[in-house]
């Protein structure tokens, strides 16, 4: 059964729990602790807190509109989504439910035609989680991400607005 999760704007009291890290796939070196909640403008960059079915802070989902567009016009731009869950909240379906909800929010409240995600070729949990959320694997992006001392290969995923009928 799909997990019931809630996405809501970040509150100041969420911040100590939203540390990031604690995953080899999120190791980009020291980071400054957030001192204020992230923006949640779906047409720009932002993040939302993920609450699990007990109302606990499970982690966060984020998005940013790609500087790299697939054409020179604004209509060829699309958001890329990301996620980080607290270790205690991984492996029970929260990730796929949260990413599916974020995709739905982006299609409902922006004119995006395409929502993308990218994850390491070795991040099998995120690949499976994205597939359960309805994104399709499109291909391997070779050496696109510098992380923890090396260039890493990733997998590009996407879902189109016109795919939604397939998801419901
Ligand atoms: C990646 C992440 C978001 C996934 O969320 P999650 O709630 O743990 O994942 P879900 O429970 O929705 O789905 C995970 C799926 O992957 C599978 N899986 C987990 N580890 C796996 C592995 N090593 N090999 C193959 N499949 C694996 C699980 O069995 C599950 O599939 P199933 O439901 O068909 O059994 C979460 O684990 C996380 O925050 N990790 C650390 C940060 C991170 O990697 N973020 C993404 C960076 S791009």
UniProtKB/TrEMBL annotation:
Pfam family, one: Acetyltransf_3
Key words, A-Z: Acyltransferase, Transferase
Transmembrane segments: none
GO MF terms, alphabetically ordered: acyltransferase activity, transferring groups other than amino-acyl groups
InterPro entries in UniProt: Acyl_CoA_acyltransferase, GNAT_dom, N-acetyltransferase
N-acetyltransferase domain span: 5-162
Source species, domain of life: Bacteria
Span list, region Disordered: 15-38
Family designation: Belongs to the acetyltransferase family. RimJ subfamily.
PANTHER family (alphabetical): [RIBOSOMAL PROTEIN US5]-ALANINE N-ACETYLTRANSFERASE, GNAT FAMILY, PUTATIVE (AFU_ORTHOLOGUE AFUA_3G00765)-RELATED-RELATED
Protein name: GNAT family N-acetyltransferase
């Amino acid at each position: 059964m799909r997990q019931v999760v809630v996405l809501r704007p970040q509150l100041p009291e969420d911040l100590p729990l939203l540390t990031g890290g604690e995953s080899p796939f999120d190791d980009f070196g020291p980071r400054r602790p957030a001192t204020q909640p992230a923006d949640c403008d779906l047409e720009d960059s932002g993040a939302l807190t993920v609450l699990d079915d007990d109302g606990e802070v499970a982690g966060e989902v984020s998005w940013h509109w790609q500087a790299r567009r697939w054409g020179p016009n604004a209509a060829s731009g699309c958001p890329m989504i990301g996620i980080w869950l607290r270790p205690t909240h991984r492996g029970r379906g929260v990730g796929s439910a949260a990413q599916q909800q974020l995709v739905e929010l982006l299609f409902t409240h922006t004119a995006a035609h395409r929502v993308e995600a990218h994850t390491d070729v070795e991040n099998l949990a995120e690949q499976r989680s994205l597939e359960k959320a309805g994104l399709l694997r499109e291909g391997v992006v070779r050496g696109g991400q510098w992380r923890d001392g090396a260039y890493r290969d990733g997998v590009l995923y996407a879902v189109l607005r016109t795919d939604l009928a397939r998801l419901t």
